[in-house]
From TrEMBL:
Mg(2+) 1 binds at residues 68, 85, 87-88, 217. This is 3'(2'),5'-bisphosphate nucleotidase CysQ. Mg(2+) 2 binds at residues 85, 88, 217. PROSITE patterns: IMP_2 (PS00630). Keywords: Cell inner membrane, Cell membrane, Hydrolase, Magnesium, Membrane, Metal-binding. GO terms for cellular component: plasma membrane. GO terms for biological process: 3'-phosphoadenosine 5'-phosphosulfate metabolic process; phosphatidylinositol phosphate biosynthetic process; sulfate assimilation. GO terms for molecular function: 3'(2'),5'-bisphosphate nucleotidase activity; magnesium ion binding.
Amino acid sequence: MEYQRLIPIIRRLAIEAGEKIMEIYDSPDFEVRSKSDDSPVTAADEAADALISAGLAEAFPEVLIVTEEQAATHSARADSFLIVDPLDGTKEFVQRRGDFTVNIAYVENGVPTRGVVYAPAKERLFYTLADGTAVEETGPFDAQAAGSTVQIRVAEPGASGLMVVASKSHRDAATDAYIGQYTVKDMKSAGSSLKFCLVATGEADLYPRLGRTMEWDTAAGDAVLRGAGGRMVRFEDHAPFTYGKEGYANPFFIAHAPGVDLKGA
């Protein structure tokens, strides 16, 4: 993959998809349907997916595209592939909470090497550059031309305790019990892949997820986190977290700054 070409394309598609999503988000009403797994889907998910999928297929016809909204892609396999969640955090979207993102990532041999996370309602845009480092761009955002960026880096956890971020829609007792093993300075809730980005920028130190996720939920945020010096590991044994798994389902995981002394499961 030619990263110098990839990054402007996935950045542009994320912003254009965000514009489609916000048109529907700002409308007086929109329909919410249930998919076969009972998760919600809206016209915004479908419009963003159509735009991103068409753009990626045109730019990279030889690369496998795996996307949440197209079940036929979930059985396809390749060593390297593009993976998309056109609207991560549909529950936050439906409840008009703003914590939803557009996620596009490129995975090579099990590792998400490049990615973009765009939170249009929050006006925050994170992505990896061609060299793999992670940045946050300051708005307003122009799909055709990148604006000013600031390199982001994970923080060194303070002596007074950790900043912990957890899911807004999927918090449970098991997660609370695990977090309880740490000295915690403060906690915050966030939806979608924004949690990875908060660790990447140093706004949080630890994000544990003891619940079901899919690779399209995590790949882009994971790429940004890795580009900022952070780490993503399996919850049960702290082994490296990999992509391209059968069915694209994830195990439980911990995203963290390297300075965090991880506790056992």
